[in-house]
């Protein structure tokens, strides 16, 4: 397990922080063990209630990618384009 910081803002509410961290956790699963497509998309939809703009999404996802090496864009593309029910981007 890697150790890195999750990007979020201290002034967000506890619920908002939980939603954003849930997406980072879902991305970790997508790369490390795999995650159900619906589970990931549910986390993404909740994340978008906190960061609805594309600019905000890119800002925080780039911070997370810099910390972890995990790309939100890649996971989203896999979720949207794959006909599989599980997303896995790690070593196969």
What does this structure look like?
- It contains four helices and two strands, in the order αβαααβ.
- The protein is globular.
- 63% of the residues lie in helices and 4% in strands.
- The two termini are 18 Å apart.
- It has helices at 14-32, 37-50, 54-68, 72-81; strands at 35-36, 86-87.
- The chain has a single domain, classed as Orthogonal Bundle (Annexin V, domain 1).
- Helix 1 packs antiparallel against helix 2 (37-50).
- A two-stranded antiparallel ribbon has the order 1-2.
- The chain is mainly alpha-helical and 92 residues long.
- It holds the Pfam family UPF0223.
Give Rg in angstroms. 13 Å
Low-confidence stretches: none
The amount of beta strand, in percent, is under 5%
CATH fold name? Annexin V, domain 1
Run of helices and strands? HEHHHE
Domain count: 1
Q: What is the 3D form?
A: globular
Structural class: mainly alpha
User: What's the CATH class, please?
Assistant: Mainly Alpha
Count of helical regions: 4
What average pLDDT do the residues reach? 94
């Amino acid at each position: 397990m890697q150790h890195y910081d999750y990007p979020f803002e201290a002034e967000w509410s506890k619920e908002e922080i939980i939603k954003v961290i849930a997406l980072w956790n879902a991305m970790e699963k997508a790369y490390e063990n795999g995650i159900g497509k619906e589970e990931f998309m549910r986390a993404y939809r909740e994340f978008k209630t906190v960061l609805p703009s594309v600019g905000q999404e890119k800002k925080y996802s780039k911070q997370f990618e810099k910390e972890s090496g995990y790309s939100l864009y890649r996971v989203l593309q896999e979720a949207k384009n794959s006909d599989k029910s599980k997303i896995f981007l790690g070593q196969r």
